[in-house]
Structures are given as structure tokens and as C-alpha cells.
Design brief:
The complex is a heterodimer of chains A (about 220) and B (about 750). Chain A is of the alpha/beta class and about 220 residues long. Chain A has a single domain (about 1-220), classed as Rossmann fold. Chain A is built from 5 helices and 11 strands. In chain A, the strands form 2 sheets. In chain A, strands 2-1-3-4-11-10-9-6-7 form a 9-stranded mixed sheet, sandwiched between helices. Chain A has a two-stranded antiparallel sheet with strand order 5-8. In chain A, helix 2 links the parallel strand 3 and strand 4. A 7-stranded mixed sheet of chain B has the order 8-10-7-11-9-12-13. Among the domains of chain B are: about 195-375, Phosphoribosyl-aminoimidazole Synthetase, Chain A, domain 2, CATH 3.90.650.10; about 430-759, PurM-like, N-terminal domain (60s Ribosomal Protein L30, Chain: A, 2-Layer Sandwich), CATH 3.30.1330.10. With about 750 residues, chain B is of the alpha+beta class. In chain B, strand 4 (about 125-135), helix 9 and strand 5 form a beta-alpha-beta unit. Classes of the chains: A alpha/beta (about 220), B alpha+beta (about 750). The interface between A and B is medium-sized, with 32 and 33 residues.
Chain lengths: ~220, ~750
């Protein structure tokens, strides 16, 4: 299992994601300006403030050369995980439905939150079968999930909502307490909470590892072509 | 005549903040009149902010050597050896006046500046802390505005650049109403051998400017803002505040660290106050060399900038490095990869002069020593206030009573305390103590800081083992499983009451916080925030405070490796409370054996430890009563403080103690409440006879808990320190015999909501 962690100028949680991924497999950094994904099994777009995010969040990163590769990779069924800023970038790139808006508080919020795993039959959550409640931190200013009513309906009906904030835990005003969604095909997943920051008992919980372990389990179970 | 009119008619050197005496000295040293560019450069290098002319002599009193010190005062940041081949660089710096004028950008660029100080010595920034002071938020819209915007600015910069904010402190007092304090501290890690100094070396080597374009922003920031009192019309100074660009700094940071890793740099220096002028002068001075610049090469943000503007611009996110000419292509390549501008703008020579050329014309030519060393250092003329007792201004606002807090600082409106009467407290029944405790817990100086620290990313970089409200100090894990601990502390109210002991207490309390996580202090940085040192009473506060710091550092064996002085913190109403802020870093041998403040297990025994002889002088209870800080603070032998802290440290490390918490503001009753709230569990105690529940002596008393057996063994072991069993962890109620009985949920409710209304 080999993870590729994208590094944009302004990425902040790239090294954290690299370390967390290395707990469950191999992991390499993918430089934003380069093409080629070095044969990785899954791409992780990490948190941070890509290109400063002075414009709408993620709006510039989607044009990075590496993102063209990521789009091709996703179109071929490759696994793509977007965390926080990565989620925002994937929405901007049109690889995930909906958008992330400024928190209702209009302030940055850093907090451990309880999450409900809505479905465990995805490549990103298949290791959560026995633990459907996760404790993972969020930290963002722009994390309020939004989709137009009809799209929201579609997402819910289509089983694309993978993670919700637990009761009373919604930190940003996201619609329907949505914390993470996948695309219709099921191979691209974005979430605002930071699983890479819930990967070591010393610094918090280890629930985030379940997301990465899910990816590994999924990749390992694939029949070699 | 208005001040503005008189200024415009004054000779040009006075307009730039130089005295007639200083100007005479410049004429004598140069043997001629300086031109416009040279005078601009000299006025900044000779400003209080750059030359420390009113504090340098005093600072010599501080101990600066120790077995762990790698870099001491004088470098961009101090550094200590934390083992495992790693150096820990750290420093605290103020950005008070810019923050008082424009809080968001002032605070943001304060963070940006301290980050650059850390990577200027080759260390990767791994943690930020901040120490903030504002006016009373309940009574002042301005204070709420400054608080909200400064906190947002700190978060904006630190969060965006990916450095966690792991701790800090905030206090509210009337004296900071106009002149708020924003001190930022940064820690950075580097392999020991990669620490780099700022001394320019090697004649023929190139001077390369890295980072942002140079604009007119921040011109005169150091002299206009930092070296004079705030006053009317500060709106007009807003253009002097720089604008931060954390994205540019993030790229600059990664770029500089990669340049260092590739061994491409001879020296590195950040551009802070006084911009190019200060950086070039300092680098040349430390290397004993000369530097020639061609400023027509400096990439500009604006057209037609004057030479003097280029030399003193304080545009942010810039660094200066010295490289060997053969490395230029490699340097440019790395910089391009990180989308960071890099321009060779000069070279090192042996002239001992700073020569500045613009389009082939010599626009400045000054000996380095005149820029750096020849500024006169002034002796202070300290004068103790006539009577030590009620000396602090406030209550008596007559002419000349310019010591201590701003007039009116004492008129803090008492929090509504039904049924509470001053004097009813000692030995009183449960009623008044309950009200007092709840009022203190909800008061801005004591209540939960969550509304602030939730706006900061405290977990990026994955090192944070203890974050705010888990323990008295932040703890970060190192690659080998050991850790570093850090805390930042200061209490202007107590220093106003008694500058010498108050300053010593700041050191004691900061070290006590480290002891509570099992950390041994390795080094200290400080920021001395005071009023106008040319006033005798402020000079006295400063002199006494430095003496107190020195005595406490000597007693605990902690060297001062760097810091910052911020003077002229005054508004028209008067000076701020004298506010020395102390940051200490320490070492934890094993992060799996670090402490926490909350009680853990029902059945654990609770003990009061340390040479704790508190008083009400300068306490939060007195503040609640609307009293001015006055009276001498408890005097404690430094050796007994050191022993008690060593004892706590050993108990945390051996895990004899399940929890450890230092008793600070609000005394033992508040400390017990904090232990209950953090652990979500109750306690039943009886206080020793004569111990006032709300009296204070920070840094000298601790509340600890542990099993009866392990606590007993620990208490009997060396080193010895006073230790009294006072009760047991149990239930869901804080019960202080004959005084208080309150559900932990009730304690939590008021404490958690204290600051919430102001955000």
C-alpha cells in the first residue's frame, strides 16, 4: 500500500498526513508542480492553506499541475482522500459535490469532535465496522458543508454522506451535520475532520487511523490484475 | 502650540526622535553632517527599539550562562541543548504599539516577526505561545475590539503557516485599556550543528535579499510606534503598521530551511524593525566586516521609492543571507522552487563600513560601529515612590503620581456579589466563600481560555502531548520519545504592587508550571513591558523588576538566553502596569510520564505542597473588591522554591502523582476548583488552619493527588518540601470543609462561560 501526499505551497498538514500514512503503509510526497503520481495506490490531499487561500479556499490549488493528474487518476477509479483544505480543493475541482462555506461563527475553530460513521461499506470506512463513533479533531475557518436542496437530497438518497458530526457536535453549521462526503462512484472522499491528527495515543485519539487502515484494507483486498 | 506644529518646526533630527545630545555625538563621530539617508538610518539604529539605550545596562544584571545554553542573548534567538542532537531555539517579542493601533495586523505581524527570528537561527518553528493584556472587557468596547481582533490576527498568521499555538495567557486590567500588550513567543527545533549565526563573514561573499517585495509599509515603525508613548491621533499611525502575508512567510520559511539543509548559507538574518538598515548593520557588526549594498537592485513594490525609504522599510516576510558567490545559482534554484524572490544586492568587504549605492551614486557611507555601538546608553534615574504602601497611581491621581496603573485603573467595578462583604471572608461561613469562589471562577482573569485557544491550531505538526487546559504547561514530543515543555507567565497586577517580588514570582510561576508536567527548566526568555523609563517611578519599577528576575533565575538556576524590551507603554492617562513576561522551556525525559492538572481517580489523596505562605496583596480577590494592587508580596526563600519544584517534578516523573497543579490566581480554592473541573470529579478537603482560601503566592504552592501509598512514600523521600494531606478525590462536589460545597458542574458552568460573551 503506497499513499501519495500532495504538497502545495501553503500545505500545513502534509507532514502529519505523511507520518500517519506511514503508520499503515508506504507514503511519499507529491509535489504540486510536477506531473506523475509515482504509482501510488491512493492520493491524499492534506490540510493547510494552499497558495495562501486568500481567494476562495481551494480555488487556486485546483489549477495546480498535479491536480490534472489527480483528476485523471480519480476518473480511472483511483482512491482520493481530501482532508480539510483537501476537501475544499476537491469540491473546487468538481471531484466532489457541494461546497465549503465559512463557519457560522466566522471564526477558526480547533476542537475534538465526535463523528458518526454513516456507512462502513466504503473504501474509506470499511475498518470502522466495529467502531462507528470516531473522535477526531477539526480545525478550520471554512468548513460549513453546503449543497443545494436537490443535490443534498440526491447525496443523502445515494448514500454519499459518509460521516456526520455527532449530536450537538457540529462545529461550523454544516447542512445535515455533514462532515464527509464521497462522489457518486465512491472512490473520492472528502472530510473536514483531520484523521491524521488522530493517529497517535500520545497526541490524541487513534480513531483517525481507521480511515487510513480502511484504505489499506481495501487496496489489499483488491484482486491483482 | 500643538505638538504637530512644534514638531514640524523642530530640527530634522528631533523629528526623527534623536536628542540634541545624540545628534552632537553623531556629528562628532562622523566629523560631518549626515545626509538624509544616513540620518534616517542612524535615527532608527539609535532608537530605543534597536539600541536598548535605556535598558541595556540594566539587562547585564541577568544571568545568561548555563550548561545547556547554545546561543545566548545577542543572536536572533537564544537556544538550548535538549538532547538527542537537537537544539531548541526560542524567544518572546512584543508587538504592543502596532497592536494597539491596528490589532489584527499588529498581532499577526508580531507572530510573523517572532517566527522569522526562530528560522533565522536555522530552526524549524514548532510552537507558538502568546501573552496578551487588554482593558476590562465588561466595561470597554475598545477592549473587546482589541481582544477579538488581536486573537484573530494571531490565529490568522499561526494557523496559516502551520505552526501550532500551544499555550499562552491573557489578563485584563484597566491600565492596558489604551495600550494593550501582545507578546508572542516561538520555539524552534534544529539539529545542533545546523544552528546558524547572523555574523557576516568572508569578504567577497554576496548579500542576498530573500522574500517579499520592499514597499513603503512600516516605515518608521520602530521609531514612530515602538519608541514613544501612544497618544491622541494614533489613527494617523495606522500606515506605520505592517500587513502580514503568512503564505509568503510559509514559502520563505521552507525555502530558508532547505537552503540551510543544503549547506548553502554562511549567515542568515531576518529583516525586522528598521529593515535593511538594522539587518545589514548587525550582520556587519557581528562579523567585524563591512557591507556594500546596491539598493537599486532591491525589488520594489512601489515605484519611485526614495533611498532612505528602501533602507528603512519594514515590509514583512524578508530575510537577508550571506552566501559564497559560487553558490548563487544553487540558491536561486531553491528559491525559485519555493516561489521566493532572491536578489543579490551587495557584498561583504573589509571596510568596517556600511556603504549604500543607488544607481551608481553613493547615498550613505557610515562606520558600522557608529551605527551599532556608539549610541549612548543611559543610566536610569530610579526613584522609589514616596511610600511603598499605596504608591501606585490610580487612587491618587494628583500631578506627578505617574507610577503604576493608569488613573482609574483601581476603579474596577466590583462584580456583583450578593451578600459578600469585605472582611467577612476569613473564617466566615459557607455563603460568602461560595459566592466569592463562583465570582472568581467566572472573572475574566481566571475563567476558561477556551474561546481564545479554540481559535488557534494547537495540534498541527503532531507533537502536542499536552495542550491548553490539560496541564499547566504545554508538552511537545521529540523524535526519541522525550519531550519539551513550555509556559509563559506574568502578572502585571502583582508587579505593580511589588516590582521586585512580582517579577521574581513570574519566574517562579513559570517554572512551577513546568514542574507540574515533570519538566526541568533549561532556559528563559523575557519581554519587559514597561512605561516611559525616563520617568523616575517607571525607572524604579524596571530596575526592581530586573533585580527580581535576576534573583529568581539565580535561585532556580535558569539562564536568560534572550528577550525583548518594550518601553513607553503609556497612554495619555498614564503607564501600564509594569509587566515583565517570562517564557521558560524545559525538558521532559519521557512524555509518557508527564503531568496533568485535573484530578484523576476517586480515592486518591490530595496534598498541598510547597513553601506556600500566601497573602491578599495584589490578589484577584482584592481586584474583585475594586482595590488597587498594593502592599508587599510574600517573600520566599528561592532555595525552598527550587526544592519544592524539584519535588513536584520528581513526583510527576515517577508517577507517584496522578495530578499536579500550581496554585496561582484566586488561591487554593480556585486551584482546587480547576483540578475538579479539568478532571470532572469532586474533592473533599479541609484547609490547614489560618490558610485563606483566596490568598495568593504563585509558583510556591501546589495541589497534587495520588494514591495514599505512593503519595506517602513520595512525601518522605528527598528533596524535602512542606507537604500536607488535605483531603481526598471523590464524588462530584467540591467540598472545602466549613467553607464551600459546590457541584463540579456548577463550577464548570460559570468558569466555562466567563469570556464567551466577549467573542
Amino acid at each position: 500500500m503506497k499513499f501519495g501526499i500532495v504538497r502545495f505551497p501553503g500545505s500545513c498538514d502534509d507532514v502529519d498526513a505523511l507520518r500517519a500514512a506511514q503508520r499503515v503503509g508506504d507514503a511519499v510526497i507529491l509535489w504540486h508542480a510536477e506531473r506523475g503520481l509515482h504509482g501510488v495506490d491512493a492520493v491524499v490531499i492534506p490540510g493547510g492553506f494552499s497558495y495562501g487561500d486568500y481567494l476562495r479556499v481551494g480555488a487556486i490549488a485546483r489549477f495546480a499541475p498535479v491536480m490534472a493528474e489527480v483528476a485523471d487518476f480519480a476518473a480511472e477509479g483511483g482512491l482520493v482522500l481530501g482532508i480539510c483544505n483537501g476537501f475544499q480543493v476537491l469540491c473546487e475541482a468538481g471531484l466532489l459535490p457541494g461546497a465549503l462555506l465559512p463557519n457560522l461563527s466566522l471564526r477558526f475553530v480547533c476542537r475534538q469532535v465526535a463523528l458518526e460513521v454513516v456507512r462502513c461499506d466504503t473504501p474509506f470506512t470499511c475498518a470502522c465496522e466495529t467502531s462507528r463513533e470516531l473522535s477526531i479533531p477539526v480545525k478550520h475557518t471554512t468548513g460549513r458543508y453546503y449543497a443545494p436542496a436537490d443535490q443534498l437530497q440526491e447525496l443523502t438518497a445515494g448514500g454519499q454522506v459518509v460521516l456526520r458530526y455527532g449530536a450537538g457536535q457540529n462545529p461550523n453549521g454544516s447542512m445535515n451535520d455533514i462532515a464527509g462526503v464521497r462522489n457518486a462512484e465512491g472512490n473520492v472522499f472528502g472530510l473536514m475532520p483531520h484523521p491524521e491528527h488522530a493517529a497517535d495515543p500520545l497526541t490524541g485519539s487513534t480513531d483517525g487511523l481507521l480511515i487510513l487502515e480502511s484504505l489499506r484494507a481495501h487496496v489489499d483486498s483488491r484482486v491483482p490484475v | 502650540m500643538s505638538t504637530a506644529a512644534s514638531l514640524s518646526e523642530a530640527p530634522r533630527h528631533r523629528r526623527l526622535g534623536l536628542t540634541d545630545y545624540e545628534y552632537e555625538l553623531i556629528l562628532e563621530r562622523l566629523g560631518r553632517e549626515p545626509n538624509t539617508v544616513e540620518l534616517a538610518m542612524l535615527s532608527l539604529m539609535w532608537s530605543e527599539h534597536c539600541a536598548y539605550k535605556h535598558s541595556r545596562k540594566l539587562l547585564r544584571r541577568l544571568p545568561t550562562t548555563g550548561p545547556h545554553v547554545l546561543l545566548g542573548p545577542g543572536e536572533n534567538a537564544g537556544a538550548v541543548d535538549v538532547g538527542g542532537g537537537l537544539a531548541l531555539a526560542f524567544k518572546v517579542e512584543s508587538h504592543n504599539h502596532p497592536s494597539a493601533v491596528e490589532p489584527f495586523q499588529g498581532a499577526a505581524t508580531g507572530v510573523g516577526g517572532i517566527l522569522r527570528d526562530i528560522f533565522a537561527v536555522g530552526a524549524r518553528p514548532v510552537a507558538l505561545l502568546d501573552s496578551l493584556r487588554f482593558g476590562e472587557p465588561q466595561h470597554s468596547e475598545r477592549s473587546r475590539y482589541l481582544l477579538g481582533r488581536a486573537v484573530a490576527g494571531i490565529g490568522h498568521y499561526g494557523n496559516s503557516i502551520g505552526v501550532p499555538t500551544v499555550g499562552g495567557e491573557v489578563y485584563f486590567e484597566r491600565s492596558y485599556e489604551q495600550n494593550c500588550l501582545v507578546n508572542a513567543m516561538c520555539l524552534g527545533l534544529a539539529p545542533r550543528e545546523r544552528l546558524i549565526r547572523s555574523a557576516a563573514a568572508g569578504p567577497g561573499n554576496l548579500i542576498v535579499l530573500l522574500g517579499a517585495l520592499t514597499g513603503r509599509d512600516g516605515i518608521g515603525g520602530a521609531s514612530v510606534l515602538a519608541s514613544a508613548e501612544l497618544g491622541e491621533g494614533d489613527e494617523a499611525k495606522r500606515p506605520s503598521v505592517q500587513i502580514g502575508d503568512p503564505f509568503a512567510e510559509k514559502k520563505l520559511l521552507e525555502c530558508c530551511l532547505e537552503l540551510l539543509e543544503r549547506g548553502l548559507l554562511v549567515a542568515l538574518q531576518d529583516l525586522g524593525a528598521a529593515g535593511l538598515t538594522s539587518s545589514v548593520s548587525e550582520m556587519a557588526s557581528k562579523g567585524g566586516v563591512g557591507i556594500e549594498l546596491d539598493i537599486s537592485r532591491v525589488p520594489l513594490r512601489e515605484q519611485a521609492m526614495e533611498s532612505f525609504e528602501i533602507m528603512i522599510s519594514e515590509s514583512q516576510e524578508r530575510m537577508l543571507c550571506v552566501i559564497e558567490p559560487s553558490r548563487l545559482d544553487d540558491v536561486l534554484e531553491t528559491c525559485e522552487r519555493w516561489e521566493t524572490l532572491a536578489t543579490a544586492i551587495g557584498h561583504v568587504n573589509e571596510s568596517g563600513r556600511v556603504r549604500v549605492l543607488a544607481h551608481g551614486e553613493l547615498v550613505a557611507d557610515l562606520p558600522v560601529h557608529v551605527l551599532v555601538d556608539d549610541c549612548p546608553l543611559y543610566d536610569l534615574n530610579p526613584e522609589a515612590p514616596p511610600a511603598r504602601e499605596p504608591a501606585v497611581g490610580g487612587a491618587t491621581t494628583e500631578e506627578g503620581a505617574d507610577v503604576g496603573p493608569a488613573p482609574g485603573a483601581g476603579r474596577v467595578e466590583p462584580v456583583s456579589l450578593e451578600g459578600m462583604r469585605e472582611g467577612a471572608l476569613p473564617g466566615a461561613g459557607a455563603g460568602p466563600d461560595v459566592d466569592t469562589l463562583l465570582a472568581l471562577l467566572a472573572s475574566p482573569n481566571i475563567c476558561s481560555r477556551r474561546p481564545l485557544f479554540e481559535q488557534y491550531d494547537w495540534l498541527v505538526q503532531s507533537r502536542t502531548v499536552r495542550h491548553p487546559e490539560q496541564a499547566d504547561a504545554a508538552v511537545l514530543v521529540l523524535p526519541d520519545g522525550s519531550g519539551i515543555a513550555v509556559s509563559i507567565d506574568g502578572n502585571g497586577r502583582r508587579v505593580a504592587a511589588d516590582p521586585r517580588r512580582g517579577a521574581a514570582e513570574a519566574v517562579y510561576e513559570c517554572a512551577a508550571n513546568l514542574a507540574c508536567v515533570g519538566a526541568e527548566p533549561l532556559g528563559l526568555t523575557n519581554c519587559l513591558n514597561f512605561g516611559n523609563p525616563e520617568k523616575a517611578a517607571v525607572a524604579w519599577q524596571l530596575t526592581e523588576a530586573v533585580e527580581g528576575l535576576a534573583l529568581a533565575c539565580e535561585a532556580l538556576g535558569v539562564p536568560v538566553v534572550g528577550g525583548n524590551v518594550s518601553l513607553y507603554n503609556e497612554a495619555p492617562a498614564g503607564p501600564i502596569f509594569p509587566t515583565p513576561v517570562v517564557g521558560i522551556v524545559g525538558k521532559v525525559p519521557d512524555v509518557t510520564r508527564t503531568g496533568r492538572l485535573g484530578f484523576v481517580r476517586a480515592g486518591d489523596v490530595v496534598a498541598l505542597v510547597g513553601p506556600f505562605e500566601p497573602s491578599l496583596a495584589g490578589s484577584e480577590l482584592e481586584k474583585l473588591w475594586g482595590r488597587l494592587p498594593r502592599g508587599l508580596l510574600p517573600d520566599t526563600d528561592g532555595g525552598s522554591v527550587r526544592d519544592a519544584q524539584e519535588k513536584i517534578r520528581s513526583g510527576v516523573r515517577s508517577q507517584a502523582l496522578q495530578s499536579a497543579h500550581d496554585i496561582a490566581e484566586g488561591g487554593v480554592a480556585v486551584a482546587l476548583a480547576e483540578c475538579c473541573v479539568a478532571g470532572r470529579i469532586g474533592v473533599q478537603v479541609k484547609l490547614p488552619d489560618g490558610l485563606h482560601p483566596f490568598a495568593e503566592a504563585p509558583g510556591r504552592g501546589f495541589i497534587v493527588s495520588g494514591s495514599a501509598l505512593s503519595l506517602k512514600e513520595w512525601a518522605q523521600a528527598e528533596p524535602s518540601a512542606p507537604c500536607t494531606i488535605i483531603g481526598e478525590v471523590r464524588g462530584a462536589v467540591l467540598e472545602i470543609a466549613e467553607r464551600v460545597s459546590l457541584a463540579v458542574s456548577e463550577l464548570q458552568a460559570g468558569w466555562a462561560e466567563g469570556l464567551a460573551p466577549f467573542f
